């Protein structure tokens, strides 16, 4: 009689790649923003923003962006993506909302008092954020270009754009990657 046979043990589960955190994205943007050769490579346009797509860490999406004086993004979010940005040259202002909005099912919301936050980010200063972060980024200088590095993980599935009148935030447009690449 032969000895009983046993099925081979299943192979160990494949280790999944660690998630890219907002802190990882911020570390990346800080490193890239400190590279003077890369920053100097970005063409600057006096009329509108310019950008170059970069390879971000762990499959993230990254951008080097030039901001002429007086330009901004308008209010928007990055859907389910986490993100970070760092000012490499000049100064940017971020206005954001300290509240998580519903991700769908609304067209207009009245914001509660005291949800507005403002950060001024000079060269070498960055900011990380989680999913559904609603903000606008501005170059408020009247004379100086700003340059920044941005990274998002997972890569942006969409951007929702909003208008704002006082406390009322209104969803205006949904952009897909094909709209900005």
Overall description:
With 181 residues, the protein is mainly beta. Helix content is 10%, strand content 40%. It has 2 helices and 12 strands, in the order H-H-E-E-E-E-E-E-E-E-E-E-E-E. The chain has helices spanning 22-33, 36-41; strands at residues 50-55, 61-67, 75-77, 82-89, 91-97, 108-110, 116-122, 126-129, 135-138, 146-153, 159-165, 168-175. It has a 5-stranded antiparallel beta sheet with strand order 1-2-10-4-8, with helices on one face. Strands 3-11-12-6 form a 4-stranded antiparallel beta sheet, with no helix packed on it. A hairpin with a 2-residue loop joins strand 11 (159-165) and strand 12. The protein starts with 21 loop residues before the first helix and ends in a 6-residue tail after the last strand. 28% of the residues are buried. The model is unreliable at 1-16 (pLDDT under 50).
Oligomer: single chain
- As a whole number of angstroms, the C-alpha radius of gyration is 21 Å
By secondary-structure content and strand pairing, the structural class works out as mainly beta
Percent helix among the residues? Answer: under 10%
Morphology call: globular
What's the total number of strands?
Answer: 12
Outline the low-pLDDT stretches: 1-16
- Biggest beta sheet summary: 5 strands, antiparallel
> Strand-and-helix sequence, N→C?
HHEEEEEEEEEEEE
Q: What is the average of the pLDDT values?
A: 89
Distance between the termini: 69 Å
| Widest beta sheet: strand line-up | 1-2-10-4-8
| Proportion of residues in β-strands | 35-45%
- Treating each run of at least 4 consecutive H or I residues as one helix, how many helices? 2
């Amino acid at each position: 009689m032969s000895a009983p046979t046993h099925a081979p043990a299943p192979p160990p589960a494949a280790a999944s790649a660690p998630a890219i955190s907002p802190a990882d994205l911020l570390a990346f943007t800080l490193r890239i923003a400190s590279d003077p050769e890369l920053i100097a490579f970005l063409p600057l346009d006096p009329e509108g923003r310019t950008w170059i797509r970069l390879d971000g860490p762990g499959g993230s999406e990254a951008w080097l962006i030039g901001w002429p004086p007086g330009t901004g993004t308008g209010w928007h979010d990055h859907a389910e993506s986490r993100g970070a940005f760092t000012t490499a040259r000049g100064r940017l202002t971020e206005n954001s909302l300290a509240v998580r909005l519903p991700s769908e099912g609304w067209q207009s919301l009245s914001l509660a008092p005291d949800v507005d936050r403002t950060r001024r980010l000079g060269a070498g200063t960055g900011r990380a954020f989680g999913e559904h972060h609603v903000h606008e980024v501005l170059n408020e200088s009247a004379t100086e270009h700003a340059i920044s590095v941005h990274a998002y993980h997972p890569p942006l599935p969409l951007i929702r754009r909003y208008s704002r009148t006082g406390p009322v935030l209104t969803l205006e447009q949904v952009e897909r990657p094909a709209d900005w690449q």
